[in-house]
Design a protein that fits this description.
Rossmann fold, two-stranded antiparallel sheet, 10 helices, binds S-adenosylmethionine
Amino acid sequence: MLSYQHLYHAGNQADIHKHATLAVLLRKMAEKDKPMSYLESHAGRGVYDLNAPESAKTGEAAAGIEAFLKSGKAPEEHPYISLITRMRREISPSVYPGSPFIAEALLRPTDTIHLMELHPREYDALYRMMRYPNVHLHKRDGFEGVPALCPPTPARGIVFTDPSYEDKTDYATTARFVLKLHRKWATGVIAVWYPILKDNPHFDLTKPLSEAGLPKFFQSEILFKKPATALIGSGMIIVNTPFGTEDEMAEIKGWL
Ligand SMILES: C[S@@+](CC[C@H](N)C(=O)[O-])C[C@H]1O[C@@H](n2cnc3c(N)ncnc32)[C@H](O)[C@@H]1O
């Protein structure tokens, strides 16, 4: 089933949590000179226009990133916030970076980026947005394609996974995906986003992962004060969490 389109939801509260967390991880990992790999299993289109009718229809970006930026509480020096500010100044006031663009912006030309996206329209948009010499695009099932490339070259790096969870079985599939990746690439950082809904389907993902004894396991969950949709909160799990990132990732909860 491929009906999900992130354009309806880009820049919502969950994206703030997800993308700010990713930016903290990438900035930390890019402090070391050694080249690294970034692999993303469910890339979406890379860059979003928050003036698009899809975004206006849900109003999620207006209640999310737009409201946060207007609140004056956004820390200007944070890599996620400073990237958005720069893009709005240099490209357009309605542009919003998806995770592939955040990775390209915060990593170096010597780093290798692999992006997987299965939806033909999203893949075409990704292809238009993300043509950089160090970026490899794959129209491929990310649950199968990312493990096939692991351990990657360079062997230092991160997998970011952000499925659409259209199907309830995606939670258990994502748990198996993370465990398989960790078996194939024991030192790789793995970052997973998941939605929190009323009946807690995410337990099929979080329970097996929290019980697996994974190294440097970090979990962050936010329950929204005023959920506008069935999405009542946002969660992130990190495996092999880079040293010195926990406090900064935990601070993001306070933003929301
Ligand atoms: C939540 S969106 C990704 C958003 C993106 N990570 C971001 O933060 O900018 C999930 C994407 O996964 C794609 N998708 C769904 N199933 C997939 C699969 N098995 N392999 C690769 N992509 C898939 C959908 O078309 C959708 O674009």
